[in-house]
Amino acid sequence: MSSTIREADVGPSKVTPLPARAAANTAVPPDHRIARNPGMKLDLGFMESVRSVNRSALERRVASLTKRRSIKADNQAAWLLRAVACMDLTTLNSNDTEERVRRLCAKAINPFRRDIVEGLGISGETIRPAAVCVYHPFVATAVDAVRGTGIHVAAVSTAFPHGLAPLSTRLQEIEASVRDGADEIDVVIPRGLVFGAKWRELYNEIVSMRAACGDAHLKVILGTGDLATLRNVMLASMVAMMAGADFIKTSTGKESVNATLPVGLAMVRAIRAYFEETGYLIGFKPAGGISTAKASLDWLVLMKEELGRPWLEPDLFRFGASSLLTDIERQLEHHLTGHYSANHRHAMA
Known about the structure:
Number of strands: 10
Strand content: 5-15%
Number of domains: 1
CATH superfamily: Aldolase class I
CATH topology: TIM Barrel
Distance between the termini: 42 Å
Shape: globular
CATH class: Alpha Beta
Number of helices: 14
Largest sheet: 8 strands, parallel
CATH architecture: Alpha-Beta Barrel
Structural class: alpha/beta
Mean pLDDT: 89
Low-confidence stretches: 1-5, 11-32
Order of helices and strands: EHHHEHEHHEHEHEHHEHEHEHEH
């Protein structure tokens, strides 16, 4: 038997009719603060204690969650607004330009058409993506475009998407993005260090990246589609967190296989193990291939069921997405009108 997840599950308010309930549930609780992960010494023994992964068990758990925990009607609208608040609105294309980035930032500032905002009874200023994510050359453009809005600017870095440049070059790229105003840095690990089980070298590289970030938050991209086994995913997750990652992230979006729920579940359980060991909460960011509202709901359910309410806030959960916002806007329009409009009516950039 399925159980319905209510809007109250994504916010502090009691269950009241939409729109008041939706607006309350998409606000970040004022007392919600996360102590930054300082990292810890590389502990190979601890890594070995959490390395066992049962793929079939993970797949059964995912199937159970997505079938059993349904989100309906007004509840769904509130959860979709939560998905937007936890989004890194992204453009990482070979044809990116300053103008394209400005348009993306404009969409982040005003993510919904006015009629949708009015129909839901929400303030467009309070429900926005958490960040925009761009290549380094466009960081300054994005910083200028979102200034004063509370939207963060994330820069992909360290020879994204493969991480195959000298470490000194990768660190210089981080430092340059921070100087230009990025307050979040998405770095990518060299996958060869995982295949060679060179855990100390990987740890030392990420420690150096964390230092280069300064106050900017560090998201470590594992490239899970390239890592071959869930054991590798778990071990790489643990190394990244021990080295001081603020977030661990599934994918660059450029791999042949990007974010999948079973892999995400393995990473989430690594986060839980690290929390139980250290008391520090680590964020999680699935990225790549998350393009539908339904997929975003599945990920939110996974976070709620496995880690709890704090991981429904943007300081602990993000989607890396470029087209997801379009489908969410269409679903919200359908919620209000019973009809879907064409994608071009919800232009991104």
